[in-house]
Design a protein that fits this description.
- There is one protein chain.
- This protein is α+β, with helices and mostly antiparallel strands and 103 residues long.
- The protein is built from 3 helices and 4 strands; from the N terminus they run αββαβαβ.
- The strands form 2 sheets. A two-stranded antiparallel ribbon has the order 1-2. A two-stranded parallel ribbon has the order 3-4.
């Protein structure tokens, strides 16, 4: 459970690092990942330094993908702490939870 969160955080960090290659020029160029949209095919690094394909990781099983601002954000930390309490039940139901930040 904790490993899944750590993996997710690392994956997201790398995803955002790779995404910085194409910096949006205006606010209209930025849009969230909406329900039903396809996850970009990016390689990200987990907290252990292993490079993982985010799209492949999400394809393994139903996934709750959380994007958050960073470890410095008290609101994000509170949300992640609450999500962590739900993770055992979600895992029993066949879900995985991945959390991504720019940290």
């Amino acid at each position: 459970m904790k490993n899944a969160i750590v993996l997710g955080l690392a994956l997201l960090l790398t995803a955002f690092t790779n995404a910085l290659v194409e910096i949006p020029q205006k606010p209209e160029d930025i849009s969230p990942l909406l329900v039903g949209e396809t996850i970009p095919d990016v390689s990200v690094m987990d907290l252990s330094g292993k490079v993982i394909n985010l799209k492949a990781e999400v394809a393994k099983k139903p996934t709750i993908l959380v994007f958050y601002r960073g470890g410095w954000c008290p609101f994000c930390n509170k949300q992640l702490a609450e999500l962590r309490t739900m993770e055992p039940e979600l895992t029993k139901m066949g879900y995985q939870m991945l959390a991504v930040s720019t940290d």
